[in-house]
Design goal:
heterotrimer, A alpha/beta (about 375), B mainly alpha (about 270), C mainly alpha (about 300), A: about 375 residues, alpha/beta, D-Maltodextrin-Binding Protein, domain 2, 6-stranded mixed sheet, 3-stranded parallel sheet, 14 helices, 11 strands, globular, C: about 300 residues, mainly alpha, MetI-like fold, 2 domains, two-stranded antiparallel ribbon, 2 strands, about 75% helix, disordered N terminus
Chain lengths: ~375, ~270, ~300
């Protein structure tokens, strides 16, 4: 038994050495400099790593034809699924589209290269409110892609219009009136975040006491829930399975407009506040074609292209030059005062909480029981 | 055949068995029926019938991405199945028929791909291939996906073939060799036909696993190598529409044709040699 | 090395062969076995064992502030965290669900595999392919098909309403999860069961009946022991993926309880706590591997 034991130990030690040796290479890439590229320069085909259904294939094909390159897209379902693929290196992707907090993580980790803003003249189109965000204060690594809210969608044909625009609808006593007809997102930060907001705390709280209260609030309403669902919350609402749903704004709007009676549904961010998120374009540290990547980003920051993006996926555009080109229905939704009940100060973007992230995921697991 | 077939029991048992078999098939095909029906529905919400349309199939045919994804999946599925059937069957034979050095460790190693959670395997393959790509300078895509699929399929093939081999002894093969058959002939004409159902089952399982895999594929893929399941997964995230049904029906038809062709090919070849 | 798992006929052979011949024969057999196993051995060593070693090493590392993994300061913290109440509750719940799924699959599959074995070769192959066809759609898609069927407006509810039983909704219940798992893993039970029942010599069963065994007796004393390898293989192939099931509880169960598969996915993809995810998977795999090996040996001995 003994020799086998020491052999395994030796193997483990070698593996550990190898893995740590490999791991330490990654640190070198941190002090990367922005690529030197001309405006409109290409240095190969474009490999885009994006959320599913976030850009029209035809729009991508248009870019390919205009610049005489091939453009391929691979999709992911969450920031957390994208990160390891890019950070492991050799992903082969030229442009990725992480959300706000993930931008910060990628910068800290050295997984993105600085952008060369000389090659991005269209950046002047970006509205001031989307410049120098907290997760990229120097505006050195990212360019905004689209933005949206997380809030509640309600079927007014069932619930009526006379209800509080508040998280009480799902966490309060009223929730029992719609027992089995409510869905919450299945995402630790969004779901717990909603409960934290309902309690009047920041959705980036790192106070265990506050988190425990939020957990208990969710645990208290689990019996009223139809499901925790992220992917089809909007369809469950319009098919009548649910009447109140925590959803992403773009999902809600597109889904409403596909109905015969879009007026039966409302989307709002409750008065206590909710999430406002923004997705951003970044170039991975080892992108094979950084100049094509810059050209693509610059192309999407053009007013017409930005509008085409929004008119297709129904999320908000950070692009000033696109605003006048948006579909009327979309514009109505985006500018309606009924959407942001608590005003701009009530919304927050999700920030990375560092070591506290694991407490969020455990809290949701515990709340479900 | 080593012995005679099991005969069908008589009386009530016979009818119970038949009822159970019918039940199994109904159970298997209900969702498929629903899938097919709603692929022709002119309503974005799956489950609500909106009149007959072929629009979803047109969408599918007109999208380069879906066609490319389907073709990617077929290529990967075929290569992964063939290689894992060969490796899996060989290892099953080795484990059931022979004693050899390191047999116990090999046995354990073969079970691990079955036991490992998908996401864990996905993460480890990602780390492995990213390092390997750096060392050997290849790009991720077809090769990395296929290699990962084979890595988990070998074990499934091996388990199914072993269930067939288990307890079967090698006297028949030895008898053949006593009659001056070469080792290869004895294997080809005695053992192989005997274990064929196991190999077939293992192969079907391997193909199914390859066509089902989303998590591992997503982590080891490279630019331009989206497989159909990964593509469908992406579609689902943005809302379940009958397009997904249409894609699945195409996938179903494609794999069925593939397997039927291979069965026919097998029969023709079998007809030549026997 | 002591090895008791293969039980070949060397004892019988020794009775007729001389000891020297037997020894030569044995050595040759060992070499052939090794050559046969070698390609798969090497393949799995390179493309599975090495990656697995990386995960195992990660389980002793530390999650850093940004959710990355610091490969230094090796420790056992992730393993200590496994003792928590949450992990225990998740584990118990998942095991119960996996056992229920496995038993239902076995009860449905056994008579089915037996029935298949009584058919002609051509019918059998057709039946086998017919079992597999539904599974060449995608796992997710099949789950969504059930999602449609089980919903409030779905076909099932329409039927119960017409019959007068009122509206029913199975979607987002534990029943729906079990149903989805049984559907998803049934072929994993049928294939090995069929493979092992099909090779049973029908004359053995007839002989037992000739000796006045009742149907139940000949099932218990002859059929069951002979098909044990298939039962064992099938149970393992169903139990293990059920235990780690992630997609079905989310889609059909509405993610209302935390199960092991989901909990592991959460560690890797939400909490970005890779060391804990790695430790959780490592321990799970060691336990399952132990159970599997023991189970297979036990199954093998009843032959």
């Amino acid at each position: 038994m003994k020799p086998i034991h020491s052999r395994w130990l030796a193997i483990f030690a070698i593996c550990a050495l190898l893995v740590s040796a490999c791991g330490s290479d990654d640190g070198d890439s941190e002090s990367a400099e922005a690529a030197t590229c001309e405006v409109g320069q290409t240095d190969g085909d474009l490999a885009l790593f994006n959320w599913a259904e976030y850009i029209d294939e035809e729009q991508l094909a248009e870019f390919a034809t205009e610049f005489g390159v091939e453009a391929s897209m691979t999709t992911y379902e969450s920031n957390e699924a994208m990160l390891p693929i890019v950070s492991a290196g050799n992903s082969g992707f030229d442009v990725v589209v992480p959300s706000d907090y993930m931008v910060g993580i990628m910068i800290e980790g050295g997984f993105a290269q600085p952008l060369n803003f000389d090659a991005l003249p269209n950046f002047i189109n970006i509205s001031d409110e989307f410049r120098n965000p907290s997760y990229d204060p120097e505006q050195a690594y990212s360019a905004p892609y689209q933005w949206g809210y997380t809030g509640l969608a309600v079927n007014t044909a069932v619930v009526g219009t006379d209800f509080p625009r508040s998280w009480d609808l799902v966490f309060g006593e009223q929730a029992a009136d719609y027992k089995g007809k409510i869905t919450l997102l299945n995402d630790p930060r969004e779901t717990i975040g909603a409960a934290l907001k309902a309690l009047g705390y920041s959705l980036n709280s790192t106070d265990q006491g506050e988190l425990d209260q939020a957990r208990d609030l969710i645990a208290g309403t689990v019996d009223n829930l139809l499901a925790f669902n992220t992917d089809s919350a909007d369809e469950l609402l319009t098919s009548g399975e649910s009447v109140i749903a925590q959803v992403y704004s773009g999902d809600a709007f597109t889904q409403f407009l596909e109905q015969d009676n879009p007026g039966d549904y409302v989307f709002f961010v409750p008065e206590e506040g909710g999430t406002r998120w923004a997705d951003n374009m970044m170039i991975p540290f080892d992108a094979p074609h950084p100049c094509t990547a810059h050209t693509f980003i610059n192309w999407l920051l053009d007013g017409d292209q930005g509008a085409a993006l929004s008119n297709w996926n129904y999320y908000g555009t950070p692009n000033k030059a696109s605003l006048d080109l948006l579909d009327d229905e979309l514009n109505e939704f985006l500018t309606s005062p009924d959407v942001l009940v608590g005003g701009l100060d009530s919304v927050e973007s999700i920030a990375d909480t560092g070591d506290f992230e694991t407490n969020y995921s455990d809290a949701l697991a515990q709340a479900k029981g | 055949m080593a012995g005679e077939n099991i005969t069908e029991p008589r009386g009530a048992t016979k009818w119970l068995l038949r009822a159970n078999a019918s039940f199994v098939y109904i159970f298997f095909y209900i969702p498929i029926l629903v899938l097919i029906v709603f692929s022709f529905s002119d309503n974005r919400n799956v489950g609500v019938w909106g009149g007959f349309t072929l629009d979803w199939y047109r969408d599918f045919a007109e999208s380069d991405n879906t066609r490319e994804a389907l073709w990617n999946s077929v290529q990967i599925g075929l290569v992964a199945t063939v290689i894992s059937v060969v490796l899996g069957t060989a290892s099953a034979l080795a484990l059931e028929r022979f004693k050899f050095r390191g047999r116990a460790v090999f046995d354990a190693l073969l079970y691990l791909p079955i036991i490992i959670p998908d996401v864990t395997m996905a993460v480890m393959m990602l780390l492995f291939f990213s390092e390997a790509a750096e060392l050997f300078g290849f790009s991720k895509g077809f090769a990395t996906i296929t290699l990962s699929h084979i890595a988990f399929s070998i074990s499934f093939v091996s388990v199914v073939v072993r269930a067939r081999l288990g307890g079967m002894n090698d006297r028949l093969e030895e008898a053949a060799m006593d009659l001056y058959a070469t080792r290869w002939q004895a294997f080809r004409y005695v053992t192989l036909p005997l274990i064929m159902p196991g190999i077939l089952g293992g192969g079907l399982l391997a193909l199914t696993l390859s066509l089902d895999d989303v998590v591992i594929t997503q982590f080891v893929t490279g630019p331009g190598w989206t497989t159909l399941p990964v593509y469908v997964f992406g579609l689902i995230r943005k809302g379940v529409t009958p397009l997904i049904n249409a894609v699945s029906v195409v996938m179903l038809v494609a794999s069925t044709i593939l397997v039927v062709l291979s069965l026919i090919a097998q029969r023709i070849r079998g007809g030549d040699t026997v | 090395m002591t090895d008791t798992t293969t039980r070949d006929d060397s004892a019988d052979a020794a009775a007729v062969a001389t000891p020297e011949l037997e020894a030569v024969n044995e050595r040759q057999k060992r070499r052939r076995g090794l050559w046969l196993a070698l390609p798969a051995w090497v393949y799995l060593a390179v493309f599975f064992a090495i990656p697995l070693a990386i995960v195992f090493v990660y389980s002793f590392a530390t999650r850093n502030r940004f959710g990355g993994t610091d490969l230094s300061g090796w420790n056992l913290d992730s393993y200590r965290a496994l003792g928590g109440d949450l992990v225990r509750a998740v584990l118990v719940r998942s095991v119960v669900l996996a056992v229920i799924t496995t038993v239902i699959c076995l009860v449905i599959s056994y008579p089915f595999a037996y029935f298949m074995a009584t058919r002609s070769t051509r019918t059998r192959n057709l039946m086998l392919v017919m079992v597999m066809i539904p599974f060449w759609t995608n796992f997710l898609v099949r789950n969504y098909a059930w999602y449609v069927i089980l919903g409030t407006d779905g076909p099932l509810s329409t039927i119960t309403e017409t019959v007068g039983l009122g509206e029913t909704r199975f979607l987002f219940t534990q029943t729906a999860v079990v149903l989805g798992l049984v559907y998803g893993f049934l072929p994993f039970m049928i294939l090995p069961l069929y493979a092992s029942i099909e090779r049973i010599d029908g004359r053995l069963l007839e002989a037992s009946r000739d000796l006045y065994a009742t149907g139940a007796q000949s099932f218990r004393r002859v059929l069951l022991p002979l098909s044990m390898p298939g039962i064992v293989a099938g149970s393992i192939l169903v139990f293990i993926p059920s235990l780690g099931a992630y997609v079905t509880p989310v889609i059909l169960g509405g993610a209302k309880t935390t199960l092991l598969g989901g909990y592991i996915v959460t560690q890797f993809l939400e909490a970005r706590n890779w060391p804990f995810g790695a430790a959780l998977s490592s321990v799970l795999m060691i336990i399952m591997l132990g159970a599997t090996v023991v189970y297979f040996r036990k199954g093998g001995q009843t032959l």
